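Students often ask why we bother encoding 3D structure as a string. The short answer is that it lets us treat folding as translation between two languages. Here is a chain of 133 residues written in the first language.
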Amino acid sequence: MKRVITYGTFDLLHYGHINLLRRAKEQGDYLIVALSTDEFNWDEKQKKCYFSYEKRKQLLEAIRYVDLVIPEKGWEQKVPDVKEYHVDTFVMGDDWAGKFDFIQEETDAEVVYLARTPEISTTQIKKDLKLNN
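And here it is in the second language, the structure alphabet:
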């Protein structure tokens, strides 16, 4: 079984997220999503989520491409996660291109950057909602 992992906040879930998850799942047989916790988002990323970690986790678990959701509590957990879950492929959006190449050097996992869905992002949704209020 080929295991794949990806990371993200997945707040205001939209079709760009679904495209990423579908394409990540196509890289293997079993997709693990490491979901940023509320604390990690606030303390490290200075991001306030609309939906709580538990709600975002429920949404991800309802998606047929996702096999397991685990908490992402910090930047440094990626290599340990790859090793613990015996991951074959580490997937991120191409907005992170090059930033996680070290994972391939420190583990046996291939690192793949997938193109984002260009016309949609959570940031854009938030901006658009602000304009309409």
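Translate back mentally: The CA atoms of residues 57 and 69 lie 7 Å apart. Keep this in mind for the problem set.
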